[in-house]
Every structure is written in structure tokens, then in C-alpha cells.
Amino acid sequence: MRRSKWLFLLGAGVLYAAWYSITGWGVPCPFYSLTGLSCPSCGVTRMCIRLLHLDLSGAYRENPVLFLCLPFLFLLFAGHVTWKSDVWKKRIEPILTAGLCAALLIWGVVRNIF
User: Within 10 Å of residue 26's Cβ, how many Cβ atoms?
Assistant: First the structure.
């Protein structure tokens, strides 16, 4: 992605965070709206706002599994943007992606059972 697209996404994120902080209105989860069940990413807006305020324990409470996945998501993002080696593309990236997807799918089931 070109730098202008990343700047646009960053700006949109900052505006959304400001909007949510001022109004308390966020984008509703379509999965929750249709089923009444929490999806794996329910609470991500609140988690991100708490992270912006450096409230790590609050961010963990909003979505613990996604919070624990953040370093791996960052690694995946950084690797996708910067590392072009065959080892990364053929071995590490697919394993990391599959592991994160599995963790979030399991979390999506577990959080609705308990």
C-alpha cells in the first residue's frame, strides 16, 4: 500500500476515536445485531480507546484474546509491509495467520458459552 493510503487510514482512525470519545457512539456490530451473540471482535473499539488512554487493564477487560493477539498482529502487519523473504512469505506468515484466526474463532465460541 502506498503511504497516502496508510495516512488516510490513520486519519480515519483518529477521527473515529475522537468521535467515539466525544459522543460514545460507535459502529454497531452487525453479527451481534443479527444474532444477539458476541463476535470475536466485539469490544475492539472500546479496547482501542482504552489503549489510547494507556489503560492496559481496561483494554484487556474489553477483549482479552484480541488484546493478547496484538503483538502477533503487529508482527504480521510489520512483516507484510517490510519483509519480502521467502521464509517469511511461505512459512512464518501463513502459520501466524492461521494461529491468529484459530485463536479468534475459538474465542468467538468460548465467549458466548461462558
Answer: 14
Interior/surface letters 60-87, b for 16+ CB within 10 angstroms, e for the rest: bebbebbbebeeeeeebeebeeeeeeee
Q: Which residue from 22, 17, 42, 16 is spatially nearest to 31, judged by alpha carbons?
A: 42
Three-state DSSP at 29 gives coil
User: Would you say the pTM of this structure is higher than 0.90?
Assistant: no
How far is C-alpha 20 from the chain's CA centre? 17
Residue 1 — pLDDT band, cuts 50, 70, 90?
low
Give the length of the chain.
Answer: 114
Do residues 108 and 40 lie in contact, with contact meaning Cβ atoms separated by under 8 Å?
yes
